[in-house]
Structures are given as structure tokens and as C-alpha cells.
Amino acid sequence: MKPSLKMIFPSLFAALMVTGSCNKDESQAFTDTPIVEAYLTPGNYLKVKISRQVPFLSDVKYTNDDIDKLLIAVNYNDSQHLLTAIDSGWYIDSSILVKESDIFNLSFTFNSKVVSAYTYIPSKPENVTQSAVKVYVPRMDSASGPPTGTMSDPVEISWSNEDESYYLVVVENIETTLDPIFDFDDDDRPGNRFRKSPTNSAFESIRPMDFQYFGTHRIIVYHVLPDYAALYDQNSTSSMNLTNPSTSISNGYGIFTGMSSDTLYIEVKESSR
Q: What is the pTM of this model?
């Protein structure tokens, strides 16, 4: 089953839905500026979501632009396409199957301004390797006491990166039934995936204690663009991402970016006591 990008990157984009912060001057005039969201990956159709900001102020005025009735054009490898509205701000072109090296220029009119965005699809990560295909972690629960089992060394994930591009590693448990490593009868259990921060190095370390569940995991190595890495950093350090809109989008906020990936698999097993 192919992982959903919306499932993998949900929290990163959430802050873009709110404009303003505790430091923002609330008397400042609100401008109805659209938010563009698209993560374009090889093998998937061109799909874009357009949404509005959710302001802190209650008396703002929106324009008459209908999010579901915009005329969104995309110049794809020097050919012009008009996207089809689906619902809730989603637009698609099912004639475009994204592939590596594709170039996209998006444009539409909103609030009497031309909103434009540009991106391309980076190459698939090359020479992706892992130092181990299994890791051993002791189970910890309310009855077991302190861990006494053997724990494996960190797993090293590496790839070629001569040009110091940005890469992101996402780890996802793909078991139907989750078997927690840390089981203390807590209903608030962690999700089945975690991710590392984008890096422009050629490796990433995954510690055994980074895993939350036993079983099979997929390790997805994404080759991402600088705008994605910048948005990630802003989300990690600021409550006001909209003060730093994407450099690839004009007259709008959000992210319009391409990425490619390669996938590895690893087994997380319970170590003997």
C-alpha cells in the first residue's frame, strides 16, 4: 500500500491554516490571500488544494472568490492544462501522471491578483542503503521493570548526495495490529510513524528507541526541495509561518513542491531477556 502524503506530512502544514500570532498586531488589515498546498510525487496525478486563511480576528471580510470555482492553469513541460475542481478546494488533472524531472508552473486569479507557483520533480534518491535489516529492542511495560534485554546499534541510512540536496527520512510501521514497545496501559499511544528533520547530509541515524512498535516498518527516503526544508524549519521554530511565505509562490502562501523517494524495510523485534 502506497503511503499517503497527507498522512505523512499533516502537522507540518497545519500552522499555515492560521494567520496571526500572539505577537501580531491584530489591528493590521486582513488580506484574503489563498493558501496553496501540493506535494507532487512521481506516479501520482497532479493534485492541488487551495484554501483560505483562518484569521484570529472575527470581523474580517473575504473576497467573493469561490474556492471551488477557480480557473487554475498549469503549464506542464511547456504544455498548458486547466485543472478540474473536485471538492473542498481540491483540483486535479488526471491526464498528468507526475514523473521525475517534470516542471510545473501554476497560476490563477484570486482577490484580483495573479497567484503563481513553480516547482520541479527532483531525482529519486540514489544508492540508498541501510546498515541493518533487523533491530532488537526490549519490551517495556508496567510488569517488566527496567529493560534488561540486548539493544541493537543505531541503523544508518545512507544515500548519494554530492550536491548537498535536502533529504527527509520517514519511518512507518505497516502492521495491521500495532504491538507497542512501551506499553504502560496508556490510551494516548503514539502514531505509527515518525520522521527526521530534513538534512543536506548523505546519511541519517535511526536509534532503536526511536521505534514505538514491533514489526515491519518501511523507511522512506525523500529527495525534497529547499522550499520544503525551509517550511519544515519555520514550523519547528515559529508560531507564525505565514510571515515567511514560500519563495516559489507569488501572491499566496503555502507550499507547491516536488519530491521523489525510495523505500527500504526493517524488522523491529523483541530482544530476549
A: 0.85
